[in-house]
Amino acid sequence: MNANPDAAAQSLRQLIERLETLEGEKRGISDDIKDVYAEAKATGYDVKAVRAILRLRSLDPSTRLEDAAILETYLCALGME
Q1: Per-residue pLDDT for the chain (81 aa), expressed as one digit of tens each?
Q2: 2 and 21 both lie in a single domain
Q3: Are 30 and 66 in the same domain?
Q4: How much is the pTM?
């Protein structure tokens, strides 16, 4: 922390203001995401499936294949495949 109390207060104020701005942007983006999911649902898409696809697309392809193979193995072991 800075030795000068005025400088420390100014630094803190700037950090708080930056965080407030980012939190406001985050709320705006969150609202936009909700709107797109609502649009997907209104169009007839299954939102749960859309979320699953987004989750899968965020994975590295090799991780995705490995996860699918493990799931397949477990499903077969349980007689579900």
Answers
A1: 557 889 999 999 999 999 999 999 999 999 999 999 999 999 999 999 999 999 999 999 999 999 999 999 999 999 998
A2: yes
A3: no
A4: 0.71
